[in-house]
Design goal:
heterodimer, A: alpha/beta, Aspartate Aminotransferase, domain 1, 2 domains, seven-stranded mixed β-sheet, B: alpha+beta, Sufe protein. Chain: A, four-stranded mixed β-sheet, 39% helix, globular
Chain lengths: 409, 149
């Protein structure tokens, strides 16, 4: 059992008061707060080690290179990648998905190809494919959802067929919290020889991930959603696939040899990391992983399950509440998306803010999903290691207060 | 952010709960749709203009208390006003909710002046401004869907 009250002490921002109330931060699916450990690792880097990597012979450059490479090894270990060359640092999940669409996609798709995604996706796993099909004349197909927001696996072998070249799907829905059975879908994709990409932005921070066990070809996630800094993310790719792929951006660090006539590309993963990378970001991400490992990913998942079970139980007592997504906490990450009658999510968000509670309101960058579920928007509370049952109790109390407020003003 | 009541004045909440002039107008000379893609708010205004004067105005839509409440208040404020007066009101209203140091005379805005507190809530200005944009579009017969983005 996680001692979240003690953990919260490691996060300076959680000591802050918002509108005279102690901050309750329930917007973790958008971004997470940073422990002192991570903040100091970045500040230490700039105070003591800062230099460019991979090209200097001086001490600072060698130290920076060492730390950057260590960060890559740490990420590889975190998702059980068989090697560090499979780890590409990007700006975040969005760039990771775009990288695959731009390089692998353009090189491998034509008018006979089909791309399969699901109705649960974040815009970042819809829009790159919508653009790609225009350029390659390929088709985009969706695995549908049931009314409870779980994927409908019934016609999987028709949707994923011999024309399918890539299946790209989210592990956990950022909009409603559904945990997908990605192993089943990866197996189906493999049976027709299709490539798989897993959007792990909402899962890698919250549960153990093992890319070898999953068998996916690509996996993408973001540092800032797992206690790390913004602007650093990861694309994992199987090495043999990465080696066949064309380069992404072109420039410094990604080249082997440049003449005035032509250039040849550096080895994987450097051919996908043009220009000076986000060195401080990578070091911050490494510290975040160290911190998460101290708690253990298994315990984090258990903690969030407990919080989710608690909040679902409490919220089901609210008259007329509509909770989106699966009922069982086994199928749901630490996230609750909901609507209450007569209080619009935006008004609820503003009300809760005056009580120091931060939640997300709107369509959560999953517009088609929220529409499909019959809403225009929803309120979303999402949890992490530092959240407690007491915070949830306060949250539910304030929701009830808001209902009275907007009824009686 | 200081006091919730600065933004949710009693009358605004009342307009949200019991919107005035709500529903489609069968015979309207002008109409326009507005949309706030960020939060999903939608509003449509139906305006009947005769001899340069609004003789009837109604709206439909879904949204938060600020967007729905302000739409309802606009219908009351603009009825029987000349087009020039209407455009003066919508432009004054937009200034009031967006400008920090706004200190013009807001008598003309009547009840709409209760929304002045919004200027302190940058995240909610779009909710308030959707109706005024949409009404202007209807009057100008732009034939395009207004978006706050």
């Amino acid at each position: 059992m996680i001692q979240s009250q003690d953990i919260a002490k490691d996060f300076p921002i959680l000591q802050r008061k918002i509108n005279d109330n102690k901050l309750i931060y329930f917007d973790n699916a958008a971004t997470t707060q940073k422990p002192t450990h991570v903040i100091e690792s970045i500040s230490n880097f700039y105070s003591n080690t800062n230099s460019n990597i991979h090209r200097g012979v001086h001490t600072l450059s060698m130290e920076s290179t060492y730390e950057y490479d260590q960060a890559k090894d740490k990420v590889a270990e975190f998702i059980n990648s068989p090697n560090s060359e499979s780890i590409i640092f990007t700006r975040g999940t969005t760039e990771s998905i775009n990288l695959v669409a731009e390089t692998w996609g353009k090189a491998n798709l034509d008018e006979s190809s089909e791309i399969v995604i699901t109705e649960l996706e974040h815009h970042s796993n819809i829009v790159p494919w919508q653009e790609l099909i225009k350029e390659t004349n390929s088709k985009l197909k969706y695995i549908p959802i049931n009314s409870d927001g779980t994927l409908n696996y019934e016609n999987l072998n028709q949707i994923i067929n011999s024309n399918t070249k890539i299946v790209s799907l989210t592990h956990v829905s950022n909009g409603i919290g559904t945990i997908n059975n990605i192993k089943k879908i990866i197996k189906e994709a493999q049976s027709v020889g299709a490539i798989t990409l897993i959007d792990a932005a909402q899962s890698a921070p919250h549960m153990p991930i093992d890319v070898q066990d999953l068998g996916c070809d690509f996996l993408a996630f973001s540092g800032h959603k797992m206690l790390g800094p913004t602007g650093i993310g990861v694309l994992y790719g199987k090495k043999d696939i990465l080696e066949e792929m064309p380069a992404y951006q072109k420039g410094g660090d990604m080249i082997l040899e440049v003449t005035y006539e032509k250039s040849s590309w550096n080895e994987v993963p450097f051919k996908f990391e043009a220009g000076t990378p986000n060195i401080a970001g990578a070091i911050g991400l490494k510290s975040a992983i160290d911190y998460l490992n101290l708690i253990s990913m298994d315990s984090i998942r258990e903690h969030e399950k407990e919080l989710t079970e608690h909040i679902l139980k409490e919220m089901r007592n609210i008259d007329g509440i509509d909770i989106l997504g699966p009922e069982s906490v086994e199928d749901r990450a630490g996230l609750v998306s909901f609507n209450i009658p007569n209080v619009h999510p935006h008004d609820l968000g503003t009300y809760l803010d005056t009580k120091g509670i931060a939640i997300r309101t709107g369509h959560h960058c999953a517009m088609p999903l929220i529409k499909k579920l019959g809403s225009h928007s929803s309120a979303r509370a999402s949890f992490y290691v530092y959240n407690t049952k007491n915070e949830i109790n306060e949250f539910v109390t304030q929701i009830n207060n808001s209902i009275k407020y907007f009824d009686n003003v | 952010m200081s006091n919730l009541d600065d933004i949710y004045q009693e009358l605004i909440i009342d307009h949200n709960r019991r919107p005035r002039n709500y529903g489609k107008l069968d015979s309207s000379s002008h109409s326009a749709k507005g949309h706030n893609p960020l939060c999903g708010d939608e509003v449509e205004f139906y305006i009947d203009i005769n001899e340069n004067k609004i003789i009837n105005i109604q709206f439909t839509g879904i949204g938060c208390a600020i967007s729905k409440g302000s739409a309802s208040m606009f219908t009351e404020a603009l009825i029987n006003k000349s087009i020039n007066e209407v455009l003066e009101i919508t432009s004054l209203f937009k200034k009031m909710v967006t400008e920090k140091d706004f200190n013009e005379n807001i008598e003309k805005l009547d009840d709409l002046s209760l929304l002045s507190g919004i200027s302190a809530y940058p995240a909610r200005v779009k909710c308030a401004i959707l109706s005024s944009h949409t009404i202007e579009s209807a009057i100008n017969n732009d034939q395009k869907i207004i978006s706050t983005e």
